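Page header: ASSEMBLY MODEL / two components / 632 residues total.
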Amino acid sequence: MGVIMRKISQYSQKMWTIYGLIATMIFLAIGVTLNVLLDFNAKWKYILTCSIYGITLIILIDSLLMPKYKYKKFEYDIDEEKIILNYGVFIEKKVIIPMRRVQYVDTEQGIILRKYKLINLTIHTAGGQHEIPYLESEIGNEIQLRIAKIVQEKII
Amino acid sequence: MRELKHQHKYVIFSGIIVFIKDSIIPLFVILASVGKKIVNKHGGKYILVLLVIVFFVLIIGLAILKWKRNVYSIEGESIYIKDGIFKTHERVLHFSQVHSADISSSLVQRLFNVYKLEIDTAGGDDKSEISILLPRDEAMEIKNIVFNKHKKEDENKEQVLQEESTKKITSSLNDLFIMATLSGRILVGFFIIIAFYSKIDDVLPKEFKRRVQVYSEGVITGAKGISVIKYVVVLVFIMIVISWIISIIVTIIKYYNFTVTREEDIIKLSYGLFDKKEVTIPIRRIQSLIIIEGIIKKPLGYFSLNVETIGYGKDKGESTMICPIARRRMLNKFFEDILPEMNITYDLRKSPKKALKAYMFFRSLDEFVLMAIIAVFVPYGYYIFITGPFLVFWHYIKFNDNGLYYADNFVVMTYRSLSKKTVIINKECIQSTETLQNIFQKKKDIAKYKVAIAGDILGKSYEVEYMDINYLKDIG
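Prediction written out in full:
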């Protein structure tokens, strides 16, 4: 494209790790509960428990190793005509949303995100929604206002 | 002051029916619980009868009141509607917001010469914004008003068009036969039979059942296995024939005299034997047109057409069958007469040959893993590998059917799932585009292309796999 794409916040790596670890804990809890409560007398019980442990392991690895690459790959750009998103480590995705089609933009900030002054931005079209995660608060809010302004102008 | 009009009096009748339908169970519960408590000397059964009479009077009163309070009027550019007994509800709808106006009537309604007029806007509301029952003439009149008022500016243009307008395509009975035979409706018939099968048990006389049982037991315990096979084959054959007949009847009742008419900038569909349905689709609401060539239909020269529209009908985006079945040669006529907007010539870009190997590998991989599992665990399971070559061949066909074309106004995509689909998407309606590339594809400059259009909550998207990334880059 030649255009310099914008990046999301540095802290996003940390966020992915934190959320990944939370998911790991939940799955680990489920796995342990099953392990304790089930008396292993049938094949499917082994398979179920093992697969949950497997998922836990995968999520753990994902949350420890992948955030660096996820951060590296996630790029976005917004201009008057369109919004471009690039992301995905193993499967690279490139999304183009024409500005005329944007219906509204949501922002969302949880407890953890607020601590790091980050914000999640979701762009809604009639054909679905697209998320730009972990933007710095000011930038996120600014983008939201900017898109709203552009959309309004387009409609008039 | 507004000139308020009432709906057809049929509403009272249908209102009563609906009330009864909704309250019959609670009524019985109340009667059953209260009825026993009333001691006989206090009147007993008379009170019960009185209760029922009061109930019916109440219902009829409510229905009449409901009809009386429900009024509509048309004033200038908008339609006004007011209803509700205890809580009044008013709504004003400007004609420019109207996306579609449908007229339909059921068999009973037609006996009373009542037609249901449903007016829809783009809103994602489940129900139609306005739904009123009217005599036929009035319904037609309102429909015409709704659609003509907001086009008055180009009246001159209209008159020119009117001479050459009203082009239509009708499906013949013959086509419907073929459609019924080829469609999955046969399976529906099959299920109906199975559903009835359990009911038959209660209906048939005991003597008959006993004799059947004796006969079938005789067949099953009979020493020769051949007769069992014959029995089963005949049974299945009979079921197929019956479900075929059911499917033909269902299809003909539903799609009898299917007519597509083009009038200026709307397309009208009308079909049905008992339940006459009339559907109006404004051209500007059409997002995409899908030509479906079924795997059995295609060799016989048949195909069907769907359109995807915005804000039409019950959902936010809806797919409407615009032509359930037609012969190949009708396609040109369809594009010329009904939808000249989408009559474009296109030069499809096929999947590059260099992608074939990867495509085959990835597509076959999970199937072969599955086959291996079956071969290991199921006795004689290794015979499943016989299907391998067929699958590979099938994937090869699918690969060859991938295609993409990109013009200023339209995107054309072809792909095959089971039937081959050609999708023509109006570029104005594209909500977002996506290109997806995994790490293997990146080396070979190949990607998947995905287009999303407005649909229900999840949206609707079409995708073509294994396209050349350089071509996609041009698309942007």
